[in-house]
Every structure is written in structure tokens, then in C-alpha cells.
């Protein structure tokens, strides 16, 4: 879905006020579910989640944290629901064999970096991770899923938008009212800058929670001074377009699609025609690229997450591993 604009506005917006009763019902129901005790996994579980619906940068964060765990000589495996895919799992993902239609897009990205299990039943997925040799599970999303106990839960926050209007879905982007979510997290990963994120960082600090600051950085300089027609079906396409501009690309045109959008032939034909008219190359995100058919002429703009204080995060991950 594409997030409605009023989610980032005031909680007094007419649409937000109209939907607020539904939001209160949804929030109470989801909060009660979130509070249930979970099943213990055979190895430590590091949960990378977020407070809101939509993209905050969870998958780049999961990839970066797995890289830090490898520096500690831990063997991580990724566990994910496989949103948008038809496989229920638990199943080990092979990026050369599985498609985005089967697994969703994030598992294919994760599987390029390490063993990845898709499972709607998270405890069953955790058992398969351990059976395949994982010493630690990096759970991409699932903060609000109570079925599996977590050893360390980090909430990823896009500092530019924070929690939007602060209301539960559908009146706003929150999955659960924020006061009910704080008790389930051990720290924040704050990506980028912005007052909305800083307000959450202050709230975390007041509760004694660590704030790990990070930023997304482009990999290489492949698009500097090049004319590009950019398209994306992610939580915040405009963030992707801004990153391209910051990397020196000349934006000849853009098109935004809903998050996890399945690209159809008419979409691809329209994109190719628009890029040709603009005299530009097509460029998209890694997450979108795995949903494109082989041979479609779109290049990928790759980013990586970099933490400001890796030493503090490494110490925290080491303590998590030692606690078992």
C-alpha cells in the first residue's frame, strides 16, 4: 500500500480524527497480542523491527548487523516472514531458484548475504535456522509478532518521519500505540537526521535505551553526472530519489509505486518509454530490482548502512551472544 499523506501530518487532520476509533480498536488488539510470551529459540534472536507500517530501513539494518556479527565470529542466519510471497515455509531461500513472487523481495536480498529462512511460523523458522548451523538469528521484522522470544530487539526509525502523526493504523502509521511498544524494545537504530527522529531518540534515552545512529550511504559513484529516470515501489520512494540526487545523479524523471508493487508488463513498457523520451537510463532500488523480469534494462542504485559508533554496537552484540 501507499501511505496516505495525512499520516505524516497532524493527529487533528479530519481523516485521522474520523479513523481514530478504528485505530484505537486495532491498537488495543495488536498490543494485547504483542504482550503474549514467545517460544524460546535454540540460539539468540536479534529482532530488527520498527514501530510503524511501511519502510524504515529494516533490511539494510539487518544486513549491517549480520556483518557485525560475523566480525564476532558468530554465524548469523536471517529469519523473515516473506511478506508478499506465497511460500509459507519454513523454507531455505535460494536466490538462484526462488522468485520474488514466491518469497517476497526482502528474502532474496538477504539470501545474497547469508542463509535465509522464510517462515510464517517464526518458531519453526528459528528451529530450521539452528538446524542449518546458525549461531544467531537476525529476524527481519517481527517486533509485533509474539510467537518467538527475542534476546535483543532494535526498533529502526527513519529520522525524517519518525512515527508520523503518532496514531495507530488506519488513523496513522503506528502498528501499536507507542507507549505499549517501548516495553518490547532494547534500543533504537536512528537512520539519518530530522526532528521527528530526535524526539523518539529523546524518549528512548529517558527510558534508558541505547540509540544507535546510522546513515545510508551509496555504494560507489556509478550515477554521478548521469541522467536517470528513477522509479521505486518502497515505503518512501521520495527518500530514494533524494539519495540519487545526493549521489550526483541528474534526475530526468521519477515514478513512485506502492510498497512491494508487482511490476506488470504495462508498468515496464511505460517506464521504458518514459526513460527513452527523457534520454535517461532507468534506475531503481535493489529491493525493486528483484521484482523485475530478467533482462529488463534497469540499473540498481545500491546503498549500505553505516553506524556512527560500531564499537558500542559490537559490544552490545557480544553481550547478547554471551548471555546464552
Per CATH, the class of the largest domain reads: Alpha Beta
Structural classification: alpha/beta
Write down how many β-strands occur, each being a DSSP E stretch of 2 or more residues. Answer: 13
Q: What is the CATH architecture assignment of the largest domain? A: 3-Layer(aba) Sandwich
Mass-distribution shape: globular
- The helix/strand series, from N terminus to C terminus, equals HEHEEHHEHEEHEHEEHEHEHEEH
* Helix residue percentage: 25-40%
Distance between termini? 39 Å
Tell me about the biggest sheet?
9 strands, mixed
- The name of the CATH topology of the largest domain is Rossmann fold
Low-confidence stretches: none
What does this structure look like?
It catalyses: a lipid A disaccharide + ATP = a lipid IVA + ADP + H(+). InterPro entries: LpxK, P-loop_NTPase. Pfam families: LpxK. It is an enzyme of class 2 (transferase). The chain folds into two domains: 201 residues, Rossmann fold (3-Layer(aba) Sandwich); 82 residues, Response regulator (Rossmann fold), CATH 3.40.50. With 324 residues, it is an alpha/beta fold. The protein is built from eleven helices and 13 strands. The model has no long low-confidence stretch (mean pLDDT 93). The chain has a nine-stranded mixed β-sheet with strand order 3-4-2-5-1-6-7-8-13, sandwiched between helices. Strands 10-9-11-12 form a four-stranded parallel β-sheet, with helices on both faces. The longest helix is centred in the N-terminal third of the chain and has 21 residues. 35% of the residues lie in helices and 21% in strands.
